[in-house]
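[recover] target loaded
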């Protein structure tokens, strides 16, 4: 079914097999409920995957149900709502983004140096001017002194976070103006979008930010078109722009600064391994993993992910070994480029 540019899609998956009896149907979507011990022993467990599926479908604003006959088989259904693409054919995409046709002045509010470098690089590529704030308080001060077409607001920052800063900015603006604010967050959980909107933000982008998603949203704002408010980050179907800031395309000073920032975080990681603090290791290596992804350092990203999993399991021996190897390889890259 469709409502304007919103479409509800229904999917069905059928199989033949043992099926499910009428009296057991209500148990199927309950956490840790087993419909039949013999079935569990024969097939290696049942139920938990469907519970997770139900949670995911509901997070997407859909519903899930099934029809089944004992000893015959089952058909599972689920729905989800999607927004129609802006362009039916890649050829219809404007060759030149709107941001290159008119000036766009952006306030970047971000405390992570690698994020700063990546986002500023994207803006410069599209001829956008920008100011930079490293916390919410600086953002509020800059907003009072300057006029911006857009604010890119990180959520978690020292001194003052993004939600507090947005609330203050909206209060100061009153009814006189409305500067679009896009939240930048590494954690887009259920209910987060509602919190962001409640604070006065217009939309959000999940990190790592890609060039296509960022400028699709910016172009919509510059054209006074509200971006789709699905609350979901979808993989773009059109590969019309470079999605990542590639290492080889970076100006040397920016790439060198990125490496220095990575080295500083790496030292924090080493200190955490010395203290054998798995929780801290997992937190820091996750930051490094995202940084490697932004810089298209995929081999390093894969190594960081393995360390993250080891820390999550509490395998300190594997963590220490992985961190030593990662440190040596990162040091080699640093010596070559600095």
């Amino acid at each position: 079914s469709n409502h304007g540019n919103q479409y509800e899609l229904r999917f069905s998956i059928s199989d033949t097999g043992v099926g499910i009896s009428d009296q057991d149907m209500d148990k199927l979507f309950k956490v840790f409920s087993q419909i039949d011990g013999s079935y569990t022993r024969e097939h290696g467990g049942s139920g938990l995957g469907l519970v997770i599926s139900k949670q995911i479908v509901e997070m997407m604003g859909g519903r899930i149900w099934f029809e089944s006959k004992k000893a015959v088989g089952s058909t599972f259904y689920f729905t989800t709502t999607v927004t129609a693409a802006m362009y039916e054919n890649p050829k219809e995409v404007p060759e030149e983004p709107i941001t290159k046709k008119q000036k766009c002045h952006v306030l970047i509010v971000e405390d992570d140096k690698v994020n700063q470098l990546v986002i500023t690089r994207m803006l410069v590529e599209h001829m956008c001017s920008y100011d930079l704030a490293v916390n919410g308080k600086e953002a509020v001060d800059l907003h009072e002194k300057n006029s911006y077409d857009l604010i890119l607001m990180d959520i978690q920052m020292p001194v003052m976070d993004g939600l507090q800063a947005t609330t203050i900015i909206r209060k100061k603006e009153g009814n006189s103006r409305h500067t679009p604010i896009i939240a930048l967050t590494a954690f887009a959980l259920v209910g987060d979008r509602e919190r962001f909107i409640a604070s006065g933000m217009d939309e959000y982008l999940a990190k790592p930010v890609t060039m296509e998603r960022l400028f699709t949203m910016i172009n919509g704002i510059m054209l006074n078109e509200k971006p789709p408010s699905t609350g979901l980050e979808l993989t773009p179907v059109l590969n019309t722009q470079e999605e990542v800031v590639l290492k080889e395309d970076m100006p040397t000073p920016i790439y060198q600064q990125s490496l220095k920032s990575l080295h500083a975080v790496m030292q924090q990681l080493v200190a955490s391994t010395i203290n054998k603090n798995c929780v801290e290791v997992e937190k820091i290596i996750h930051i490094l993993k995202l940084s490697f992804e932004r810089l298209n350092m995929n081999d390093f990203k894969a190594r960081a992910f393995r360390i993250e999993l080891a820390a999550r399991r509490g395998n300190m021996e594997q963590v220490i070994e992985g961190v030593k190897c990662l440190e040596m390889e990162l040091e080699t890259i640093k010596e070559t480029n600095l």
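[recover] notes: Confidence is low (pLDDT under 50) at residues 32-46, 225-248.
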